[in-house]
What we know:
The chain is an alpha+beta fold.
Amino acid sequence: MVEDKKLMPRRSFDRRVFPSIEYFAQDGCCRIPSLLDSSQIHVVNSAFDQYLASESHADWSRYREFAEQSNWGARCFSGDSRATTLYDCIGVSAELDATIEAILVGPLGDFLNRELGKKFKIWFAQVRNAAPGSASLRMHCDLPGEIGVNILLADTGRNASTTVAIPGSQRWPPVVNTLRFLKPSLFGWCCRYAEGIAGDAFVFKGSCWHGRRRGGSVATRSLILSFTSESDHPKERIVSRKDTPRLSERLKQAMVTE
Length: 258
Ligand SMILES: O=C(O)CCC(=O)C(=O)O
Ligand SMILES: [Fe+2]
């Protein structure tokens, strides 16, 4: 079959990304199906399982201290019925790093180049496991220029604990501090859900109101990455070349901020 070139997206964009990113500007969120394949999903799950089995976990009460510190370094938080989350997962295993690098040079990378510029930065990289019944995360906004990506590591339905976002809410006033009554369950009727099969991704603007549903009857797992442009990267979290000696040049370029 001869395809009409005029109808084809720009060459650098993977066809899987279209037409979802067309809606991103309008809705502030979109899906990208099949971003990871099954072997890549296995790599991320194994790296997380190995970390959980071999390293200690911190209580969520220590999270603020971690978020305010300037050094990049793996740390897992659990307890308090919240999702078990491994922050700063880049550097935990060479295979996991290679998978994240593949994401940066694949269709999502093309998308981020377009949205944030070629020197886009990784702001957070986390793997999270939400156990059945785990607590919800209230609706909130992230940094104004941030783009969050939830990559499903297990098949996820809309009744499970998953990210939700209100399309168009990036044009509303930001939710500066998370308000107690802004439960995701109240907004279910107007939300988009990060749902799909393992490997699918859900992309959302930091300015789009979003949260995470309470856990259902099955656990959910995601790799959650967030990105900013070089100029929007908050300077309080400095990553230097010496903090990332084992990383590839491509990952260093996305991480190093000085
Ligand atoms: O865990 C999620 O689904 C969303 C996480 C999130 O929005 C955040 O950490 O700011
Ligand atoms: Fe968020």
